[in-house]
Amino acid sequence: MTRYVIEGARVFDGEQPIGVRTVEVEGTRIVAVGASTPSTAERIDGNGATLLPGLIDAHTHADVETLGQALRFGVTTEFDLFSFPHAMHPVRRAAAERTDIADVRSSSVGLTAPGGHPTQLHGGLNDPELPTVSRPEDAARFVDERIAEGADYIKVLIESGKTLGKTVPVVEERIVKAAVAAAHDRDRMVIAHALTLDATWQALAAGVDGFAHLFIDGPATPELIEAFLAGGAFLTPTLNLLASLTGRHLGADLAGDSRVTGRLPQPWTDNLSREFNTLPAGNFDDALAAVKAMHEAGVPILAGSDANHHFGALGMAHGASLHGELQLLVRAGLTPTEALRAATSVPATTFGLHDRGRITPGARADLLLVDGDPTSRISDTLSIRDVWRSGTRAVQ
Predict the structure, then answer these.
(1) Residues of the chain with CATH 3.20.20.140
(2) pTM of whole model > 0.90?
C-alpha cells in the first residue's frame, strides 16, 4: 500500500489555516496530520507551498473528458446539476473506478415545464426529449424516475428565459411545491435554478434546500435574506455565469493567466474568453453585494462554476473557472479563507460527503498543493504544484 508524507507545507484544513504540518497518507486516506512519520515513507517537499483539501465544484455539467480537465486544476469532486442518464451512467462508473478524473455526483435531468428551460439551449446537440411535468400529481413520479436513474439530489428549473434572451414556459409554483415535498419524503435535497428575484421567491416558498445560481435582476433585500435563513437554504451564486450574462468579460481575464493556459486545451481557452452578454442591463455589482450580504447574514455560500461539458456555456471552463469563482467570492467580500471553505468543507457538509473537503485523519486523500498562500492571496490557488485524488498523484 502506498505511503507518503507531505512535509514543510502550510496546511489549510478545510476550515482554517493550521500552520506548517506534516500530512501522512496511506493508500486512499489521510492517516495523520502533524504526527511523527515513519522513516520508510516517501517524502514530498512542501516548503513554500500550501496544502489544501481537493476542491469541490458545486455546479457543473460533466463528462469524462471535463472531469479529467477539472482534476488538473485540483478539483477532485464535481456536483453535476443536469445531465441525461444515458450519458451520466458511464461517467459515474468511470469516476468510481478511476483516479485520473474528478469524482462526480449528479441530479440527472431537472424538472421543467413542457418546452421550458433548457430546451432553448439544446438545438443541434441530439439530446433525447426531456421528461417534463405539467400537473402537480405527476411530480412524485418525476422524482421517483430521477432516483431510479441514480440521482443524488433533485433539481428544479424556474426559468422564463429572460436572462438568456429567449422566453420559454415556466414550471408552475404548485408543481415545484409538489416536487419538493416528494423529494423530501424520499430524503433527497432539492436545488433550484432561479436567476430572477421572482423565481427565487417561488423556490423559497416551495421549500427548496438551495440555489444553483444567484438572481441577477435586482439587489438582495432584508426580507429575501431572512427568507433564505428561515428556510435554511444555501446559495451557489455562480458569479462566473452572472459576469458572462452581463457582459463583464471576466473569463477573458482568467484565460489570459499563464497558469490557466498551460493546463487548458485551446478550445476551452477560447470558450473561457467568450461571454453570453444576453442581459447587459443586469447589475453585476448588485450580485456581488448580494453575496456579501447573504454571507454576512449566515447563508451558506458554495463555490460553483456552471462549467458545461460542451462549448455552450460561454465564459466558463472546467477546473479553471472554479479558481475564477474563488477570486470573485473574495471580490464580493469573503475573506480568502472563507472562499476556500466555500470550495471544500462547506459543500462537503452541505451534500453529506463527510469523507472529503477536509484534511483530517480518516478523510480521503484528495489534496491540492499550491505555491504561495491562498489564505492570504486567493489567486495562489492557481499556482498548482501537485494534485492527488484518493491518494493517487495526478499527472501534471
Answers:
(1) 55-354
(2) yes
